Input
Amino acid sequence: MQWKISAYPTGHEHHQQKSLFLSLWFLANQETFRQISDRFDTGTGQAYRCYRFFINYFSKRVGQYICWPQQSQFASVLSKFSDLRDKSFPDTFAAVDGCHIAIRCPNTDSGSYYNRKGYHSILLQGICGAEQRFIDVLVGWPGSAHDARVWKNSPIYDRLKTSGHMLLPSNAHILGDSAYPCDTFIMCPFRDNGHLTSKQKHFNAVLSSTRVIIEQAFGCLKGRFRRLKFLDMLDLKLASKVIATACVLHNLCIDNDYADLDTVDVATSASEVDGEEDGEEYVHVNVGFVKRNNIAAAL
Output
């Protein structure tokens, strides 16, 4: 895989290559800048400048490398999900979930970033296709935020609400877990209240087996870019740029048929239900629930 960043601050091609490899090494490991500068035989300050340039360069190109499929690609997207499992969830277009990226305790508003798992984090909301390639990401919400809140405040949610017919084929949907509110464009499992029917349990099992693709994508992301295991930085804007850059590079690896790692870490999902429920799901019976019931009956 050959990447070239022509705008690197150093002019010689050898220095450009070193800067590129240095920056990739930074994302792939938890080494300090002192260790990295020793490894690449450069000054600590120069190593930091190269890394900052790299992060700024790719974080500005999220829309170029992480983009929603065109309508001409819709049939292919549905086909890939259909072939993903022996019995895949019908009409699946993508899967969505949230992922905690651990960070240092911020100097300000630290309580908002303290999640229910007992550490400080930034949330990454990701939507991916059958190849684990991200088609939409939202980075920067504090770790205490609930998945449903992040989802309903995301730009993609507004677009799906107002012009979903432009983003999804007819009857197609995104798969989410029980933290998300069910709707026509997002299918979620039935909440297990201890009284689920056999059809509802089967529905949940088929949905889960297909939706797991997004958890695998997060696991692959953190396996490739181990810096995301813990971002030891206080600049939250820069931390969000680092996460966005890793997502861009993740897609570039897939686009270039870069082999998956032998060992992939399981990502820390942000979407485990913790008692916070979306009241609308229990108050309003809408067409999303009707659609879910029809799918459950047909499976």
Observations:
- Confidence is low (pLDDT under 50) at residues 261-266, 272-285.
- The longest helix spans residues 198-224.
